[in-house]
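Researcher: I'm preparing a figure for a lab meeting and need a structural model of a single chain. I don't have an experimental structure, so a prediction will have to do for now. The sequence is pasted below. Please return the structure as tokens so I can convert it later.
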Amino acid sequence: MTLAVVYSRASVGIDAPLVTVETHISTGLPGFTIVGLPEAAVKESKDRVRSAILNSHFMFPSKRITINLGPADLPKEGGRFDLPIALGILAASNQIPIDSFADYEFSGELALSGELRAIYGTLPLALGTRKAKRILVIPLSNVEEAALPGDNTVLGANHLLDVCAHITQQKILQPFIKKTHSCSHIPPFELDLSEIKGQMHAKRALEIAAAGSHSLLMIGPPGTGKTMLASRMPGILPSLSIEEALEVSAVYSLTSHASPVLSWGTRPFRAPHHTASSAALVGGGSYPRPGEISLAHHGVLFLDELPEFDRRVLEVLREPIESGSILISRANRQTEFPAQFQLIAAMNPCPCGHLGDPKNTCQCTQEQIKRYRSRISAPLLDRIDMHIEVPAIPIENLSNQGPAAEGSSDVLKRVQKARKKQLARSIKPNARLSARELQKYCYLDPTTQPFMNVAMERLRLTARSYHRILRVARTIADLSNSKTIELEHLTEALSFRKMDRA
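Model: Understood. Here is the structure written out token by token.
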């Protein structure tokens, strides 16, 4: 009787818990059993592994083979366990050294020929292996993604024979070395603020939102530039840190939406259609996968035509906006995904879109307008930091050939300077300050507090709105290079609460 132990990792959200693949070969009737909560793809690995071993010119034992994937209460899915199972069988049958696996972790799907196929969720797996200080052996097509952390050792192989040759030291696999891991070399965003005529108030709101990572709702008639403004938001956001870039890439590693290597270091910009379901927005499935709010982690989630979204879909955003994460519960598991997104939304002022438009007459009744706006609940609206009006642009502004408007690069410099102050003060942007940190960093002196008290009473603001106004005022003060919140900062912050005044 021979026992072999090989290390691998499962996929649970953006985590990759350690899985010990134990292989036991004993006498008795030939059989092949896999235990440890394997799902269908893992159970099917028996046939893939058998064919891969035989086609690689090894001997498949005609004995009783038992594979245990521990821990037993952790669900296992996918074909990532093919390679460690095959190596365990070869080691337990004394065809390769049995004591060569302590410093390695293996993951990869096997073709019937023995070739290694790519797997999903490589980056979380690589981060877990790095933390355990082991060497990761994966398919060659996954090595570039697995090497994104930069300080881990990754070996890529094309075939089961390549891995066995490395284990027996007949042909050593060379570690993959990534050229650069910096986020500072990302090319500028191609859409620029200078392309938008007028809308100075909206541009100012966009700058404040970018500086403090605040959520923003734009209200205005069709064709006033709301979508153009939102699409230029990534161009004025500070660069991701290495840790943030790894978190974003780890989420994308679990999906087929974009390559984590190609999108490395760029802030996500997600704009789901208003017909999206709640599962598409927050994630879900029998084996939970990230939704749009997680794909927008450390980036922008743009919801155009906000009232056209199903109200039940919008309500699921309330908790992630506050907590920065989403917990998806199923009968046999709970999976948590990060969701620190910056919400940018746009809507028309009424069903026809022409309320307040001097060029077109609104045909909506007061009841229709009220019903249209009530599609956005008060609790959700309360969680949006800034509400602004984006009016129609006069024709003379569109045809004006005067000096070019301020570009995204100029705004980005001010945003970076303000964000640097926030990170030095509280290690987080102002939008995520806690109640205790608000008392410390957003203190109002005796000249500004009475003004805020009057505004609270006249606008009938909630405590949550009060705190969000303070956060926006703190960001305006940072952009003005002021250590304290002055009356002018507070006044401007209140001007960005259009829906409260309405």
